[in-house]
Every structure is written in C-alpha cells, then in structure tokens.
Amino acid sequence: MEKFTQNNPKSRSDRSRATISRRSMGISGVLWKTLGLFAILHFAALAGIFWAVEPALKSGHTYDPIASPWIVGLLGSFVAGGWLAIVAKRTASVLLIVCFAASEGLFLGGFSAYFEVVFPGFAIQTAFATLSAVIAALALFAVPRIRIAGRSAQFIFVALGAYFVFALHNVAVSGLEFLPDHIAWGRGSVTVLSVPLGLIFALHVVASMAYSLVLAFERIEDTPRPLKPSQHEWRAAFKVMATFFSHCIETPRVLVSRK
C-alpha cells in the first residue's frame, strides 16, 4: 500500500500542493513580520530626523544638524545585529529583532537628515530608493504568481514597482512647502547633462536593492527550517532587514569615497 501511494501521481501531486502551501504560508508570515518591522523602522526614522534637526530648528540655522542619532543607531544596529548573527544564530529573539529595526530606523533618519546637508541631493534620494524597493518587494511577493516566477522576472517586477514608488516619493515631497525645493528629484546635487547626479545614483540604488531583495527572498524559500514556523519567520524577516541595513551602510561609504 505504501509503495502504491508513493507511485501514485495523484498522491505525489497532493504532496506537492501541500509543500507549496506550507512554503506560501511561511513566506506570508515573513512578509507580515517584515512589514511590521518596517513600520517600526519608519517611526524610528522620523525620530532620528527630528533629533538630528532639533538644534537647527532652535538656532534657526538650516545647516546645523547633529550626527548623534545616526551614530547611536549605527552602534545599536551593530550590537543587536551582531548578537543575532553570531551569538543567537540558532534562535529568534523577537525583542532583539525589534531593537535592530528601531536602531536601523534611527540610523536611516539621522543619516538622511545629516548627510543631506553634506551631500545635497544624495542622502534623501538614497533613502527614498532603498525604502521604495522594500515597499515594492513586500507588495509583489505577496502575490503567489510572483513568488513562483523566475529570478529575472521577479527582479523586473520588483525594480519596476520600486521605480514607481520612488517617483511617488518625489512627487509627494515636491508638494511640501516647508521643505527646500532641492530635496525633490535630487536637484540639490551637481548635474550631468542636466540630470542631477543624486537622482542617477538613487536609480542605481533602486536596481541594486531590488536585486538584493529578490536574492534574499529566494534564499528564504530554499533555506531549511529547523526552527518553529514563527521563529523561522522572524529570523527570515531579520535577514530582510539586514539586507536593507547593508545597503544603508554601503551608501555613506560610496558617498565619502566619491567626495
């Protein structure tokens, strides 16, 4: 009977559907947990921005932000992320993962506010680029047909979606009167053939981030799951956040080297 079941095409089809269902449920959980972590990141980023520009608001000098928020966020991200990656790599501490997301947001907000003064037209556009890619990836990977598509197709879908969200970011910023005009579309940076260099750099970041996220979700699909389902989902969500953080770290290094 067991042999008949193994050779039965219908039985194999049922097992295949069950496996796909389990994987889909796992990815759905990862997407929801990652979305929650990015909500925390956004609130922390706003706190980092206000912390960075508070002295400038008090003094009335626009070019007087402080570096404390992104330095604190950077150190917090390294401590929480390092502990999760090295010491607690076989567990999934939700508290540490949340702390990592909050520190990451503090770093991103403080960094964007501080370096927009040092590198006008670069920092805000880069933040828009990375966030746009994540928003597009989370939305598109929620569609089962996208998840089963090939890597190239996934990259094209995520990249196009990210460019659309990136454009919406800039359109929204263009309508805010209390922000300087040079913020939108990277107009504060130097131009190459009348195109802001900050915008060109951000478009490259969108594509790079989109490809990294496609690879990250591909690894999540293929990774063995020795942990409990909820632990695996939190651990996978942390890996997505770590992918995002690595791009946030790489950006200031590239900007400083170009400066």
Task: Please give the radius of gyration in angstroms.
Answer: 21 Å
Strand tally: 2
- The geometry reads as globular
Q: Number of DSSP helices?
A: 9
- SSE arrangement, N to C: HHHHHHHEEHH
Give the proportion of residues in helices. over 70%
- Across the major sheet, the strand order is 1-2
Q: Average pLDDT across residues? A: 78
Q: Report the major sheet.
A: 2 strands, antiparallel
Task: Please report which band the strand proportion falls in: under 5%, 5-15%, 15-25%, 25-35%, 35-45% or over 45%.
Answer: under 5%
Instruction: Quote the distance from N terminus to C terminus.
Output: 72 Å
Unreliable spans are 1-6, 12-25
Which structural category fits the helices and strands? mainly alpha
Characterise this structure.
- The protein has 259 residues and is mostly helical.
- The chain is 79% helix and 2% strand.
- It has helices at residues 2-7, 9-59, 68-87, 94-118, 123-140, 144-147, 151-174, 197-222, 229-258; strands at 191-192, 195-196.
- A two-stranded antiparallel ribbon has the order 1-2.
- A hairpin with a 2-residue loop joins strand 1 and strand 2.
- The longest helix is centred in the N-terminal third of the chain and has 51 residues, at 9-59.
- The relative contact order is 0.13.
- Residues 1-6 and 12-25 have low confidence and may be disordered.
